[in-house]
């Protein structure tokens, strides 16, 4: 048995012994008395009776040995600012923020909603909440007021921390008007709003409610706020899923299990050493930001890079310039970002000294083969696809290179990560699938440490949504299709609600997209099923071209459409061939960069697109509409 295979086997067969060992990676104020309590499935409690604190483990614990080491490197290409904080400086700032929140009456178990741009104060606020035992709920900055109001009403925060503005592509996005409107729309009004004034946009203050963080901070410069020791299962935060498939779910995370899972992942998956520098190019509003910008790198005694900006401004070399300047060792981002870079000059990949960089991690969306190949060859570094969800907080599938560097396969995020008892099941019968048989990716309970403990405020929804969809079995459903090959590698074939049924043949959107993306002219593509009187459904594709003028004339467009159809024909067969291929310059996505296929489908079928509260850019929907109308 390979060393990873035995490591994995032990994590399932001797679950408690395995995790008790991993639990030594963090400090416990009171040791746990029981590794796992699972007498009320599917609710799992990890490290029962243990008391710990995320902020202590991420910050205080490192002060004796790394006070002068970098902890936070903030780079904003939006405002042309950079700031570096050592662990000592980070600790001082977190204490000031914690004291400020405490002065507003924030206590253990209360919620603090964080609606912030990517600035250091956002990270301070998260850690300050952890310090106080308060539950943070970070809402992606720049979300419209309706999104915000829905989350305010669900989380019922005592205090909201916000700022005057964010900035995108060099344009100031004022937050305060959105925030005020969000609070006006919400039923659960916060007692206070604490505001960071970046000097980007004018801000009106509401008398008696709004307070300036600068004022509070100045009153607490020397503050030392003790860590509130939480029982391991007490919530650390609530984070809403991206809303790609429907109404976002409030994912509740525990404290001890999360700390242990992240600390273990840094060793076994991210191959991190204390003193390394991680650059997770994501947003604190998403789970990757929570886990791999904020908590995990700091738990591991690393420096973390927090980046405000896009991957291509001032130019497509900016990320690699940051890697060179700060000697970044691990980069983590989403395939979407790599597809954006792929449209830029490839010379950017070789212009900088990337000798410090060891690994590039990608997650959040399927990593298609051409993109994987382009970035792997361009950087000359291993690219590690990993598959997970907001719900799990850390990878479900991946290659645990810290345990053993087993080879990866293009298009596969790898194998089940230790701790996850991954199953592929037949959606109709609930039976286990064999190799090369497509099924729903599910997880046998208990979920490992760090995964969601419940839906915030709604245990029944947790059980019903996640655990009651596989016939006859209590299994956690990922709502993704997958397949496992003979060597045990998994491939994700798309979401269970993205199935196209052509004359009785069930096709995954993702399979057709993969095929189309292999055409050299195509940068990105979305495939959806559209109602068809004859066949039930047919596949329709929307493609973004690498060179937008490649389909400028009607003749070129027709030729390219034919080419694309031929590729699918050849690779998947005629049933999968898209009935139409439309060319657009961008695809509708969520703010987290995920394709909104159901919106495209609605347009194609002449329906309302419905509630698209997480849509990135309405112009993309217009393009789809125009394309369909143009025929
Ligand atoms: P919602 O659940 O609200 O519809 P969402 O599923 O988009 O939103 P996330 O939790 O951010 O919210 O995304 C997780 C999903 O992203 C996974 O279930 C899967 O569909 C997709 N995904 C993540 N990583 C990968 C990957 N490496 N390969 C393929 N798909 C991935
Ligand atoms: Mg989901």
TrEMBL record:
- The answer on whether this UniProt entry bears the keyword Nucleotide-binding reads yes
Q: Which GO terms describe its molecular function?
A: ATP binding; propionate-CoA ligase activity
Q: Alphabetically, which GO biological process terms does the record hold? A: propionate catabolic process, 2-methylcitrate cycle
Where is each AMP-dependent synthetase/ligase domain found? 70-446
Q: Where is the AMP-binding enzyme C-terminal domain?
A: 511-594
Superkingdom, taxonomy of origin? Bacteria
Q: What is this protein called?
A: Propionate--CoA ligase
Q: What species is given as this protein's source?
A: Pandoraea terrae
